[in-house]
Amino acid sequence: MSFFEIFGFALRGVAANKLRSGLTVLGILIGVAAVILLVAVGTGSAKQVEDSLAALGTNTLTVQGGRGGDTGYRTDLTLDIVKALQDKESAPDVKSVSPVVTSAQTLTFGDASYDVNSVIGTYPSYFAASNSVVASGSGFTEEDVDQAARVVVLGPTTAEELFGTVDPVGQRIGIAGQIYSVIGVLAKKGSTGFNDPDDVAIAPLPAVQRSLTGYGPVSSITIEAASADAVAAAKAEITAILNAKMHVADGASSTPYQIRDASQLLETRTATAETFTVLLGAVAGISLVVGGIGITNIMMVSVTERTREIGIRKALGAPRRVILTQFLIEATLLSLAGGGLGVAAALIGANFEIVGIKPVVMPDSVALALGVCVAIGLFFGSYPASRAAGLRPIDALRYE
Amino acid sequence: MTAPGREQRPVLDVVDLVKTYGEGETAVHALAGVSLTVAPGDYVAIMGSSGSGKSTLMNILGCLDVPTSGTYRLDGVDVSELNESQLALVRNRRIGFVFQSFNLIARTSALANVELPLAYAGIKPAVRREQALAALDMVGLANRADHDPNQLSGGQQQRVAVARALVSQPALLLADEPTGNLDSRSTRDVLSILDGLNAQGRTIVLITHEDEVAAHAHRTIRLVDGLVVSDVRRRDITPVGVMA
To answer: Does the pLDDT of residue A98 top 80, yes or no?
Structure first.
């Protein structure tokens, strides 16, 4: 008898038990969709971290001081060092140098007050170096720095918390008892994790030093390299200048400063995200195994339950090959329908944010989940059928 | 006592059939050496109490089970020498089997059930539909062709099963207590169909423990403890020339 006729038998077999077929399909659907979605969430979170770190600028270096490595000389990050780093002769790959002082303060506007994460005192070049774009109003200038003008640019979070719907540009706010004019608001950057980079207030360095931190050493120096490719060269030049300034001996095991670049930060965060993905992948793997056992179970039950039917068919003269083909086609239909719907469900689900993460579907995970579930469905659909088809008709007929 | 001087090959020729279940001291001899011959057109009732081995004999005759020893020739072919696929062919072409519990395939229409043996025989859909409808018509159920088994009464289901058994024009119709699960009216219906088939020359072997059912047959064989204890002929064999 022709393949199409056996195919017809299989279709009738699937349609004859709609509930059982539906449940089998559902089991496979959930298994496939869960694996694809879990892996997609893991990949999505890794990608999110990468994207937000790239937004911070990858050609930026940060020098932090005040750490170990006593050289017997003063090792604070001073404006003298800032001037040395700005020297185009000894540091040709450095585009800009911005000293940074930070201080947590309470901002006030009328009756409203808000505890800002950090008030940053710096130079205008900091805006470019830290990828901070002024969205409305303007940034401050060299002139403002020279005059120690009390002007401030607010991060979007800070502006919203303090002003609500009022336009902050042109308003006057209080920082630690001093009046500052708001001259601009930054564009939103989005969170990188624990710190909100939008919760800042940026003002000229001397103004902050005079009113808030005093004229001591700066907390860090943000340096922008000429280009992303020049980061390594810039780092070497900075190291040489700092070693000379701080009298660090050649080959010293530790330095009183630390230079961090964004790519280093990126690597750390990416590694963390990868660990997360591996973890989710492991969970997905377990759910694949559990889903596989579920598929095995329902396939075994649904075929074993039909041993008697197989007996009847054999008694009517059905060749073993025809019975096997019928059940193989039935298992294929159910597995493919379940797998296909599972992939579709996962792809639809991946369009939505899951716990704040936009899932990124990996083609590998789709192939793996689909392959494993369909293979399990096929094997455990056809194995009991082949066992039943191998029985003597009388044993299959008597099977309870 | 069997074939009255007729020079025809028997449909069934069973010699010293033994079927043993289990081994050693716990072994049960369901059949302890049964020999019998059935000529074409005969109508045989096999009787015996529960445990007499009559069902075991029936399953072996229907090629659903294999004997422990002994030979079984069906239409002159030694069945024990056939392989799995040849046996499937024999079950499909030579034997029509009617079960006590009907054994129709659930959620499948009466017509599709009757078509099944023809489908396995590789007959084209249009042809087998026609033949299946003819077989259903013969048992008086042409108007129920589209009904599923659970929409039919027990008697109707058994008549569908009879239609299924005879649709492939088998040489031998085997019925294992065909009326065992039926009320008296359905029993009469089914038996009259079997009588009609035999009148057309079909060879029928049925199992029963009811004397009224056995009275329809032309010959009654009694089994006790796996042995033939009596073999009585009441009527002559239907002339085979009438066979369609």
So the answer is: yes
Residue of B56, B80, B84 for testing the chain A interface, max A β-carbons within 10 Å: B84
Listed in sequence order, the residues at least 6 apart from A169 whose beta carbon sits closer than 8 Å to its beta carbon are A136, A137, A182, A183, A184, A185
The CA-atom distances, in angstroms, between A266 and each of A49, A235, A260, A261, A262 are 8, 17, 11, 9, 6
**CA-CA distances (angstroms) from residue A170 to A152, A211, A270?**
10, 21, 41
- Length reported for chain A: 400
Three-state DSSP class for residue B151: helix
User: How far, in Å, CA of B191 to CA of B177, rounded?
Assistant: 11
**A251 touches B at CB < 8 Å:** no
The structure tokens listed for A341 are 């719907």
Closest C-alpha to A357, from A52, A55, A56, A31: A52
Chain A hits for B117, Cβ within 8 Å: 316-317
CA distance A89 to B235: 129
Could you count the other beta carbons within 10 Å of the beta carbon of residue A72? 8
Q: What ipTM was reported for this prediction?
A: 0.89
Which of A285-289, A319-323, A379-383, B16-20 shows the lowest mean pLDDT across its residues? A285-289
CB < 8 Å from A in window 3-22 of B: none
Residue in this structure with the two tokens 């270096």, named with its chain if needed: A61
Pairing outcome for strands A112-122 and A200-204: parallel
Residue A215 has a CB neighbour count (10 Å cut-off) of 11
Q: Running DSSP on this structure, what letter comes out for residue B53?
A: S
**Secondary structure E strands in A262-351:** none
pLDDT tens across B56-75, in order? Answer: 999 999 999 999 999 999 98
Q: Which helix (H) or strand (E) holds A268?
A: helix A262-304
Count how many residues are written for chain B.
244
CA distances (Å), origin A10, targets A309, A324, B89: 13, 10, 21
CB A158 within 8 A of CB A200: yes
Please report, as a single letter, which amino acid is at residue A104.
Answer: A
C-alpha to C-alpha distance for B217 and B194, rounded to whole angstroms? 10
Give all domains of chain B, ordered by start, each with its CATH number. Answer: 41-55+85-236 (3.40.50.300)
B104 to chain A, closest Cα gap in Å: 8
Strand order in the sheet with B77-78: B28-38, B12-21, B69-74, B77-78
CA distances from residue A1 to A318, A399, B233 in whole angstroms, order as listed: 10, 27, 42
Nearest to A319 among B62, B85, B93 (CB): B85
Return the residue in A2, A20, A316 with the most chain B beta carbons within 10 A, the one to mutate for interface testing: A316
Specify the DSSP element, H or E, that contains A25: helix A18-55
Q: How far apart are the first and last CA of chain A?
A: 30
Q: Which amino acid is at B115?
A: E
